[in-house]
Design a protein that fits this description.
Blueprint: H1 5-13, E1 22-25, H2 28-40, E2 46-50, E3 61-62, E4 71-74, H3 77-87, E5 91-93, E6 102-103, E7 107-111, E8 117-126, E9 131-137, H4 144-150, E10 156-159, H5 168-177, H6 183-202, E11 204-214, E12 224-226, E13 229-233, H7 255-262, E14 266-269, E15 274-278, H8 281-293, E16 300-303, H9 310-321, E17 328-335, H10 340-354, E18 360-366, H11 369-377, E19 383-386, H12 389-399
Parallel strand pairs: 15-17, 17-18, 18-19
Antiparallel strand pairs: 1-7, 2-4, 2-7, 3-5, 5-6, 8-9, 8-11, 9-10, 11-12, 11-13, 14-16
Length: 402
């Protein structure tokens, strides 16, 4: 679950990370009020930042105002109000959004912090080493992917033992490698501990600060401050954190994904035209790879899980059918825990209830597979039975017109 910048900063602030003074606004008038209050605190420069679930806002552009980006610096509350009016309700396109962009419904109004040096830091899970990793770079405020691609040695990595957490010597070592000296090494080390604590306590996929700055300006008493923040919470951990549910912004999510979640389905919308209904994340990814190898493009990732009920399968099928880009459906089930006959009944029920006219390619193997295949073949003319992943992918690509 992705969070907005202002929400990420709230979680970080609660754990000791300094951020610029500011607040979120949903109207130009509210944005001006926030700026006026900041002005009373001796703030003389402001920044207005569009709140969407995507990066690259400073280099993006508003569809309605092509010369305007998603981040604007202002000198007066009147300018803040004007900048907010240009963003709110408008569509922002960045290199991290879909081509159609995202609608801006909120803006963050903050004190603009004088910058001497910009840095990058993040804590994420390194799946190759099965442990957390602290990432840092002296090149902040830019696309870290591009910076590291050009100069891989710019990215510092410090792997963390999850049983011990981030050790003090590790945090200091990273700080020194970034160029901090003297007492600022300890300040930077405390900063790294705070973002690691946020990652650990929130059970996040990533906590990213880009940039953080070493600051000596009058707008803050802190020497290190996070100017931007991104946090993605692990969906599988949300049941342990009911307090995070209020942070979910349904307007930023695909409606089809929101509906799938209500039925306990793991669904991610993609840009292709071949829908996938699979049990197990590994098999789902293998199915998508097979489709690509056959020249097709998957329309979604959909894992119905190992013990899917007939109702869940029917709900998954109906979810798929709401995507108008879908030209064919590939069902790939391996019945270990899953009863193939149950899946088949769910698929048959969904086809009969919805009157689907799309070709459906089914590959079922394992527990009660023979019975399941028989259910699908009898009376369902649109169903094509395959006996391997490769054959199923090839048939689905052909059926989709590929």
């Amino acid at each position: 679950m992705d969070l907005h910048e202002y929400q990420a900063k709230q979680l970080l602030t609660a754990r000791g990370v300094a951020v610029p003074a500011g607040a979120v606004a949903e109207s130009p008038a509210r944005a001006r009020t926030i700026a006026e209050r900041l002005l009373e605190s001796d703030v003389r420069r402001f920044v207005v930042k569009a709140q969407i679930h995507a990066g690259g806002r400073a280099l993006g552009s508003l569809v309605e105002h092509p010369n305007k980006a998603g981040i604007t610096f202002c000198c007066t509350p009147e300018e803040v109000e004007h900048a907010a009016s240009e963003m709110l309700g408008k569509t922002l396109v960045t290199d991290q959004t879909r081509p159609e962009g995202k609608r801006v419904l909120k803006v963050l109004v903050e004190a603009a912090i004088p910058v001497q040096r910009e840095f990058y830091a993040a804590v994420a899970l390194d799946r190759t080493k099965d442990c957390p990793v602290l990432l840092a770079s002296a090149t902040g405020g830019v696309s870290i992917e591009n910076a590291v691609s050009a100069s891989p040695n710019r990215l510092i990595k410090e792997w963390i033992d999850p049983l011990l957490g981030l050790r003090q010597f590790q945090a200091r070592r990273v700080a020194a490698a970034l160029g901090f000296v003297g007492g600022s090494i300890l300040t930077a080390a405390d900063f790294f501990h705070s973002i690691y604590r946020t990652w650990w306590e929130c059970e996040a996929m990533i906590v990213e600060i880009n940039p953080f700055v070493q600051n000596t300006g009058p707008a803050t008493q802190h020497s290190i401050i996070a100017l931007d923040a991104r946090i993605a919470i692990d969906d599988n951990a949300l049941f342990k954190h009911p307090e995070f549910e209020s942070l979910r912004d349904a307007a930023e999510e695909e409606p089809i994904e929101t509906e799938a979640r209500k039925h306990g389905l793991d669904y991610i919308k993609l840009d292709g035209n071949i829908a996938c209904l699979v049990n197990g994340a590994g098999l789902a990814m293998a199915t998508m790879d097979a489709i690509k190898q056959c020249g097709g493009t998957p329309a979604n990732f959909l894992d119905v899980g190992g013990g899917a009920s007939q109702e869940q399968v029917a709900a998954a099928f109906k979810t798929i059918l709401t995507d108008t880009n879908v030209h064919a459906i590939l069902v790939n089930i391996f019945g270990g825990i899953t009863d193939c006959a149950v899946v088949a009944r769910g698929v048959a029920a969904a086809i009969n209830q919805s009157g689907v006219r799309l070709p459906v390619v089914v590959r079922i193997e394992g527990n009660n597979a023979t019975q399941g295949r028989a259910m699908l073949v009898e009376g369902l003319s649109k169903v094509i039975v395959a006996h391997s992943i490769e054959e199923a992918a090839r048939m689905a690509v052909q059926a989709a017109g590929g």
